[in-house]
Every structure is written in C-alpha cells, then in structure tokens.
Amino acid sequence: MTQLFVRTLREDPADAEVPSHRWLVRAGYIRRTAPGIYSWLPLGWKVLRNVEKIIREEMDPISQEVHLPALLPSEPYEATGRWEEYGDLLFRLKDRRDNDFLLGPTHEEIFALLVKDLYSSYKDLPLSLYQIQTKYRDEARPRAGLLRGREFVMKDSYSFDIDDAGLEKSYQAHRDAYIKIFDRLGFEYRIVSAMSGAMGGSASEEFLAVGENGEDTFVRSPGGYAANVEAVRTPVPDPIPYDDAPAAHAEDTPDTPTIATLVAVANERVPRQDRPWEASDTLKNVVLMVSHPDGTREPLAVGLPGDREVDMKRLNAQLEPSEAEPFTDEDFAQHPGLVKGYIGPQALGTESVTKIKFLVDPRVVTGTRWVTGANEPGRHVFDLVAGRDFTPDGTIEAAEIRDGDPAPDGSGPLSLARGMEMGHVFQLGRKYADALGLKVLDQNGKLVTVTMGSYGIGVSRAVAAVAENTSDDKGLCWPRELAPYDVHMIIAGKGETVGAADDLAVALSERGVSVLLDDRKASTGVKFADAELIGVPTIVVVGKGLADGVVEVRDRRTGERQDLPVAEAADRIAAIVKE
Question: In Å, how far from its chain's centre is CA 542?
Fold first, then answer.
C-alpha cells in the first residue's frame, strides 16, 4: 500500500447521495472529474475489469467482440430519426469543416451499417456482435456517482437474423447469458417487462438490481408478474350499461380547487343515497404541454380518477421521444377556453372548441359516471357518463401505480419495489435495418430486410450496483469474483512481523493468490479501518499471534475469525480464496 495509488478518506464526499458513491470515493476507487464524470483509480479499475471479464466469459460463446468508435457521424442517426429524438441527451459537436458529429450514446446505427458493408446473404446470418465501450449522454442532473453519469462504460451487443424466429432465438440466447452474468455479479436482481421507448421494437425486458436507492420503480405479484411501472397495463373494466343513468347536471361547488375539497362539498351539497362520494368518483382532467423533438409544442389533456396522480415518468414513457411538462399560467392565458381548476371533458378533445387532444385512463370506460369540472368557475358536473356525455380521443397509461393494484395477468395484487437498471434487452425488429437499408438475399434470391436485436449492460453501473447491494456500515464488501485483490494483509507490528508478512505474501502469490499488503507506518487501528473500507473479502492479520506461531484470518462479510498455523497458512488461505 505504500506503492499503491490510493488515498482513503475519513469523511463522506459532500455530493454523495447513495452508499455506493460514498464508499467508492472514500475507499479510493474513483474520483470526481466533473459532474457525472469520474476517473477510475487502480482499485476501481481492477473491479471494473473483473466485471468485464465475467461479461466476456458469458458473451463470447454466443457473440463476437468488436470495438467501434465513440466519435460518430450524424448521418446514420439522422436517417433513423434519433438525431432529433435524443434531444438534449446527445453530445453534439462539429469538426473544423463544420460537419456534425456526436459522442455515441448507443450504437444500433453503426453496427447495422457495419454488417451492411460486409454481409449480403442469408448464409452470413445469424450473427451477433458486441463491444465494451465508453458511452456518453448529457444527463440534465447527473447524480448518485456511477449510477447516473454522463460518461459510462456499457456492454452493447446486437443480433442480426433473417426472420422473426431467428430474432426470438437470438433474444433468448442473450437473455440466458444475462442471467448467468447477473448471477455471477452477486447482487439481487429482477427481470421485468419494460417499455422499448426511443429504441423501438416489439418487446423488451429490464434487469433491475433491487435496492432502495434505485431510481426505477417496478412491480411484482405473488404469481410471478414483474414489470417496470412504465410498462404496467391497467386491467380494463367491462363497459357499464347506462340506460337508467340520470342526466348530467351542473352544480355550484365553490372553493373546490382540489379533489379533497370537491369531495367534501359534494357530500355536503349533493349527497349520494347509497354511500358518500369518494375521490375515485371524480374525473380529474390534467392539461400538460408536450414538447416534440422538432421543437413544436402542443397541449394534451389527461383524464384519470381523482384518487390518482399523473405519474410523469409513466406518461413520458408513452409519449417518448416527446416529453410532457406541467401547464403554466402563460399556457392557460393562451388557451382561454380552459377554466383552471374546473376543466371538464366538454371543453376537451380534438372535436371540441379547444381542439386539445383528450386521453383518459383505461378505467374510464363506457358507462362509468363521474363528477368532473363544468368548465365554469365554481361549478362541477355530476353524473357525466363516458360514452354518452363525452367521448375521449383515446386512452393512455399515465396514472400512478399503487401497492395492491391488480396485476394485468390476474396473478394477484401488485407490490412496489425500487431498483437500478443494469441491463436491457430489446427485440428491435426492422426499424433500424429499414432506415439504413440493411438487406440480404434470402434462399430465393430475394432481398429481405434483416431483423435486429439490441442488448445492453451497464458495466460501470454494475460496479456501483454491487457496492450498493453488498456494502455495510464500515465500507465496501466485494464478492470474491469482483474484488480488486484476494487478500488484504495487515502488518500489525514491527521487526519479525514484517518479514513474516512478506514471506506469507510471496507464498500466497506463488499459489495464484493476489495480495494487497498494508506495509504503511500507520497505526493498527487505521489499517483495520482501511481494510474494512476497501472491502477485500479475506483479511489476514500478521501480528502478535506470531509469538504463538499463528496468523489471524478474517472474513470481511461475516466478521468470522480463525487462527492458522504459520506453516499451513499459505495453503489454507489459498484454499479459502478458491472455495
């Protein structure tokens, strides 16, 4: 350690929000260079390479590794529309000749063009290629250290098949390889259904590391259903007959700017005979402003039961690559047909006076009766029936998901959990091949479009995810396969202790065991604290036990200790490491 480029810290970095960020910086694995950009120090680089080693060992049997440039021309991304769709996430630059370039966020286009350049026949397929490479995305709010950065290492692979059956086979091969990879990385994860988003394609799944600091919310049911909240589909009720429904009637409901105040006034002024009014009886109409990649903006109204809030992440997943934002006072001023706080379906829809597109929650089916805005100040409409009194332009999944909601497949109530996206597999289909003209001759000599799959793993993010899942209140605690060293040896004394530690370190090295030897002139307490902070799985203490002919071996994770005779120590420690 006197030669290792490392400096451990006793205090948490000021910007650390999550355990992985705190411990990786304090233990000397990474250092911040700029917001969302980190330098890898020797300890961290060893762990990162160990993650890459696991990935390569599981990917090489099904794919071939290549390495493509990170600096890319804009034309392929313009052809697929992603030059605009990525919006501000894209790092764009110009060369001295004023040509547009970008720093690659992902490489579907470039891989497709590479295969197009070299292959032309069905005989060349199926094909799978992958790379491990640095990617770039201009995150608006980089946070949580390696979990949400602007520069990150990713494994991205791509499959090329002649038909959909081939794509399904390639997809399954990658999915199986990912299960092996994440099983070896050593943290709890879930495979969940996901949205394809700007990537496009017919199907996608995410591999989420389970953790309370994850920025993704997913759901699971007792029957095995699991999905990212953006991908959850609300079970649609059957239509309700409304022949005997009373006519809609507007009532004075002053001072009801919120759903809670509306329910209170409704129960006071227009009481029901069967039960009290509830928030779920109200139809809340939320108007938003949608910004499109080409810079245009248009309003959108979302109708949902009043006991639910709009989940902006779910909403934007449906609108991607466009993005919705709250309606401002300036927006209301430009749309005088909307009465703020009392907006009703009568004023919404592409056939209405306002021409504002109106999409509703799937629970708003024909025959459902609602209390909703009358589009007049201080007034609401009661018994407004969907399909009779208003017809929306369509449905949208934008309402929040709650614990206890029914699973779409009927497998029981949903429960919410948090996770970090570690991998994502997509059945892309022909979106990119069509845009870029990737075709091959089939068995009949006819040109057919190749179908593609895309598969990503966050390599640098995996380092953080493992740290999140395995650290404790003392520091990092690496799984054996990822640890920067097999053994952290502490010299707890002087004189013959130093020589004995050196001899044991050499003997372990000869047995294929990597050793980090703490030979610093520091107190034993500091050395123990740093060993627990750095998190190597096996800690060996060469100290006062030498007088009795033993060295101490500690398990970093469990804290268990045992004394080993010096003469047997090298063999027995090597056996522990290789268990």
Answer: 44
The pTM is what?
A: 0.87
What is the rounded CA–CA span in Å between residue 157 and residue 425? Answer: 9
- The three-class DSSP label of residue 432 is helix
CA of 30: how far to CAs of 95, 213, 215, 412, 482, in Å?
31, 20, 21, 43, 16
User: Could you tell me how far CA 529 lies from the centroid of its own chain?
Assistant: 33
Burial 112-140 (b: 16+ CB within 10 A, else e): bbbbbeebeebeebbbbbbbbbebbbbbe
Predicted pLDDT of residue 180: 97
- Percent of the chain at pLDDT above 90? 86
* 263-317 pLDDT, tens digit each: 999 999 999 888 999 999 999 999 999 998 888 999 999 999 999 999 999 999 9
SS (H, E, C) 234-248: CCCCCCCCCCCCCCC
What is the spatial distance between Cα 318 and Cα 312, in angstroms, rounded to a whole number? 10
Give CA–CA dist 459/130, Å, rounded: 13
Helix (H, G, I), strand (E, B) or coil at 552: strand
Tokens matching residue 262:
């509306």
pLDDT tens for each residue of 453-476: 999 999 999 999 999 989 999 999
**Both tokens of residue 492?**
């707890």
471 contact partners, CB below 8 Å, separation of at least 6 = 19, 20, 23, 477, 535
pLDDT of 400 reads 96
Q: At 420, is the secondary structure helix, strand, or coil?
A: strand
Decide: residue 427, CB within 10 A, 0-12 exposed, 13-18 middle, 19+ buried.
buried
Report the Cα–Cα distance between both ends of the chain, in Å, rounded: 26
